[in-house]
């Protein structure tokens, strides 16, 4: 008979953070709220423009009120926020 190992298996890469229970839930809420707050002022007939500055030497400047353009331009590391952004 084959022997089954009951040793724990790590599925995270070395140096990854692990959040559990309430901490993970709160982190998800914070990420989703931050994304909502970012694009909220661009919505509707009185939506305001946002100025996006590109990094690096070129430093391109983009003025837009398109939420999709804004979300593509930002870097997101929160898992719940990534779902909303579509990464």
UniProtKB/TrEMBL annotation:
The keyword Chaperone applies. Pfam families: Cpn60_TCP1. InterPro entries: Chaperone_TCP-1, Chaperonin_TCP-1_CS, Cpn60/GroEL/TCP-1, GROEL-like_equatorial_sf. It comes from the Eukaryota. PANTHER family: CHAPERONIN (PTHR11353). Belongs to the TCP-1 chaperonin family. This is T-complex protein 1 subunit beta. It comes from Ataeniobius toweri.
């Amino acid at each position: 008979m084959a022997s089954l190992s009951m040793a724990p298996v790590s599925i995270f890469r070395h140096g990854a953070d692990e959040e559990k229970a309430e901490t993970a839930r709160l982190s998800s809420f914070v990420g989703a709220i931050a994304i909502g707050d970012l694009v909220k002022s661009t919505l509707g007939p009185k939506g305001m423009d946002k100025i996006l500055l590109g990094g690096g030497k070129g430093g391109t400047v983009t003025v837009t009120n398109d939420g999709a353009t804004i979300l593509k331009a930002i870097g997101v590391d929160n898992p719940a926020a990534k779902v909303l952004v579509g990464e």
